[in-house]
Hints:
This protein is α/β, with parallel strands linked by helices. It has one domain: 3-Layer(aba) Sandwich (Rossmann fold), CATH 3.40.50. Helices cover 50% and strands 10% of the residues. The longest helix has 22 residues, at 314-335. The relative contact order is 0.12. Adenosine-5'-triphosphate binds at residues 56-58, 60-63, 87-88, 90, 147, 165-167, 171. Adenosine-5'-triphosphate is lined by residues 56-58, 60-63, 87-88, 90, 147, 165-167, 171.
Amino acid sequence: xxxKCTRCCVKVAVLKRPKTSDALCKECFFWAFETxxxxxxxxxxxxxPGEYVAIAASGGxxxxxxxxxxxxxxxxxxxxxxxxxxxxxxxITGYRDDSLETVKRNQQQYELPLKILSYExxxxxxxxxxxxxxxxxxxxxxxxxxxRQALDRGAVLLEVNKIVTGxxxxxxxETVLMNILRGxxxxxxxCTLITTGTEGAIPRSKPFKYTYEKEIVMYAxxxxxxxxxxxxxxxxxxxxGHARAYLKDLxxxxxxxxxxxxxxxxxxxxxxxxxLPTQGxxxxxxxxxxxxxxxxxxxxxxxxxxxxxxxxGKSSKVKRRVESLCKDASKEEESC
Length: 336
Ligand SMILES: Nc1ncnc2c1ncn2[C@@H]1O[C@H](COP(=O)(O)OP(=O)(O)OP(=O)(O)O)[C@@H](O)[C@H]1O
């Protein structure tokens, strides 16, 4: 016998919500999904009326649903926002060129302006050229560092007040796990924040902080949204893939694992006296950095000098880690 929707009790349920296990009809799922994102936005006071907000749009499922829902909620609840799509072309043939075609269609479908910036115009390098030089190891580090800055540069160009990204609950839980595995305390503290970049940079928010990836896919599917679903051709070795696989395993036995990990990340605090990097401005390019020279500038210098490992070298990282562990151990011995 068909199961009735547990919310309206009238229509037949067409899905089981991955987050709550509720059996819902399509309309009730849309309502629950949209209302939860609205509540996330209002509880965290993400926007003020009149703000100009850039939606970081890659053409993938998350940012396509984000663009759709930002427009919908802005109209439904009168947020009073001016919206624009901001895309970065990393120069990955057969991947980003196709996904940007999707963004261009979204621009027409959602009637939003679109700005595209490319790595080639900003850095003089495409990811295709970078991978030709460095191979398929550490390439995601280059891409991530350059993209982060490219979005900042785009936001400055557009003079927006804020950027929103499609990072979802799964992405954040994966990042918590990765930061634990790497012992990266500074990032562990920051990665669960719904808004980052409040110290000097253009703030960045994640309206999907509590939204499950599976539900985003369902929403896009039932709404028949036009999105690009191919994985990046250069990311097969990314470390994140292992954290993702582990998280999916946990989710299959306990769906709340995703929110539980985010909650754990939020609850972790750094003991007094531990020095954390502070955000300042890069002395070369003027964009946000926790070092005197930002990582993007160091990496770019490495590429231009034919020394691409500059700044990402494992040996220097391991050496620094060992030195800091030795320092901690000797401090503890002294206090004993
Ligand atoms: N090339 C890009 N241009 C603009 N924004 C981007 C780009 N790549 C990623 N982003 C932003 O960062 C978010 C997280 O990116 P990530 O690479 O994790 O992709 P994802 O989880 O597959 O998301 P999506 O489905 O939107 O591609 C995206 O949702 C989007 O808001």
